[in-house]
Amino acid sequence: VTVSVPELDRSDGSRPMPGEGLDRSRAPPRVGGTGIRDLLEILGAPDVLSLAGGTPDPALLPVADLRTAYESVLARPETAGEALQYSSSQGHPSLRNEIARRMVADGVPCTSDNIAITAGSQQALDLLGKLFIWPGDTVAVGRPTYLGAIQAFDPYRPRYVELSAGACAAEPALSIVYVVPDFHNPTGRRMSVTEREALLAQTSGVLIEDAAYRPLAFDGSRQPSLLELDCRRCGSIEKARTIFCGTLSKTVSPGLRIGWICAPARVIDKIALLKQGADVHASTINQLVAARVLRTEPTDRLLHVRTEYARRAEALQDALTQSLAGVVTWTRPEGGFFTWVELPPMLDASRLLKRSITEAKVAFVPGAAFFARTPSHACLRLSCSMLPPDAIAEAVARLSRVIKESLNDHPGPE
Ligand SMILES: Cc1ncc(COP(=O)(O)O)c(C=O)c1O
């Protein structure tokens, strides 16, 4: 397999080469708190009913298909030799073809030249930060937003502006925007077509579309992706300003570490070069396995996965209605894993978490970590992905007791 490394194209003249202009001796990368690591520690605590992690349930991953795929890839000397070898920094052609096919089926006119394979979509965010964000650049993110995006972008020293849901009209033209339009982490919200159109119209530079939960609509319905709308507006993906980040982590396996960027070919060429500098390429064997699993996936597999997450989300909604109506407010997601809860303002979700773990053995994620600028402390994220419906009901019942007791400790103004 030849590793093709395109020349970096500087003809647009709009941006310096990656790394140029960064005086690293005077500007050490900003590496802040360890939100995700702290979370993983909480998840490991014994006896805790966890509504915390945004991880897929292993019972809903295609374990047998993955085993067959590994066996088949390793069974023949030619494919084994290829699977265990270095490969292209842009990604193995068989996987890029399969992903391109899926993007086309999802409304995006593209080819495998528009796809780069990354180590999960988390690495896609890092590489896009490296390519597009320069110290002091303004990056617009949701209020709240995915905390892993803040972690990926922070080392490139952006200045953030926060966009509240549906309120992007308040901001002037946005030059770099990051959004999770489908079943947002942490709120579970899905943007309407009107909101998507408005955001596209307002973005003057790069629009990063994080589609991590896009395949997980509970009823299988779809809204056009921002990239699809953008391609429709400008006639071709090569003229689009939207960069789509996808992942197999929520539906096939996060352990495979397979994500992708779908974008104009000139952006993909630069990403391939940055990918080569970062870690040469995504695991070849995992890419071949992923390509095979996608190619042979039974049509009803995702239907079953969506239905199961829908049952859990419904159990969460029912439990919240039963024990916390009138006390807190919450979102009603139509897909994905997350529900966002707003607490009465006198409560602090981090303090509540300590009490919830020690007194009720229930974990959730305090909301403050999901704000790029000004944290709000009276909010939290619940995930329904890891527990069956009866355990979700039990967890919310216990959590509601802790919330009500904490409110009793704060009787409010006389
Ligand atoms: C919104 C969002 N984007 C990206 C990721 C990164 O996932 P991965 O790197 O496993 O593809 C996650 C993981 O939780 C996420 O919630």
Any overview of this molecule?
The chain is of the alpha/beta class and 414 residues long. It is 40% helix and 14% strand. The chain is built from 13 helices and 13 strands. A seven-stranded mixed beta sheet has the order 2-8-7-6-5-3-4, sandwiched between helices. Helix 4 packs parallel to helix 10 (284-295) and helix 5 crosses helix 9 (265-279). The protein is globular. Mean pLDDT is 90; it is low at 1-26. Bound molecules: pyridoxal-5'-phosphate (PLP). Pyridoxal-5'-phosphate is lined by residues 54, 120-122, 146, 148, 180, 185, 210, 212, 247, 249, 254, 259.
Brief summary of the model shown:
The chain is α/β, with parallel strands linked by helices and 414 residues long. The chain contains 13 helices and 13 strands. The protein has helices spanning 35-43, 63-75, 77-83, 93-105, 120-132, 147-153, 193-202, 226-234, 265-279, 284-295, 301-324, 349-360, 389-409; strands spanning 49-50, 115-118, 138-142, 159-163, 174-179, 203-210, 242-247, 259-262, 329-330, 338-342, 362-363, 365-366, 379-383.
